[in-house]
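Weekly modeling sync, notes
Attendees: S.R. (lead), two postdocs, one rotation student

Agenda item 3: backlog of single-chain predictions. S.R. asked that every request posted to the team notebook include the full sequence so nobody has to chase files. The rotation student volunteered to paste the first one in as an example of the format we agreed on. Action items at the bottom.

Example entry:
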Amino acid sequence: MGANQSGWQSPCPQKGWQDRPCPGSWDCRSGQRADRCNRTSNGGKIEMKIEYPCTIEPQEPSGFLVQFIDIEEAFTEGATLEEALFNAAEVLTVIIDCRMDDKLDIPLPSPLQPGQYAVAPDAATQTALLIRLSRKDRSLSDLARTLGTSWPAAQRLENPHHSPTLKQLERAAAALGKRLIVEFV
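Predicted structure, as returned to the notebook:
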């Protein structure tokens, strides 16, 4: 734990992040795990982040088994830890894409527990899911009207097989009362 210039104590488990917004699912200011896919950062703003917890267990005679906590049909393996994590991101992407295509519910990620790994689907899937989650009970027709576009164009924003431009994403975020922030981690 460390204190920054303003004097607050940070229980953040990630060294060096005491003065900045936490990179993980930990709210450094309150010392609490962030709820579901949301976390609090500076100024009390809510950021949505799509990372699903999984367990990775070594297998005999070699390799690693990956199982997701929130999506029971999502599991994979790899010869090395790096390969297992790479495969985990791919299987998570495919399963969320299939659920979105079939208009099935997609569970929100549960909080990361000790010993678990956080895995994110690819950027196109994250984008489509974030728009879907941000829309909440608002209809696609209403979103299309707000954006001044057609219903099919609004629907494509929630389709991970289409790649909206940054301009389209910025407009959609603004229409949903959000702000688009691009981040490399």
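Discussion: group reviewed the output briefly. The beta strands are 2-3, 9-10, 26-27, 32-33, 38-40, 46-48, 52-58, 64-68, 75-78, 117-119.
Action items: rotation student to repeat for the remaining queue; S.R. to check formatting next week.
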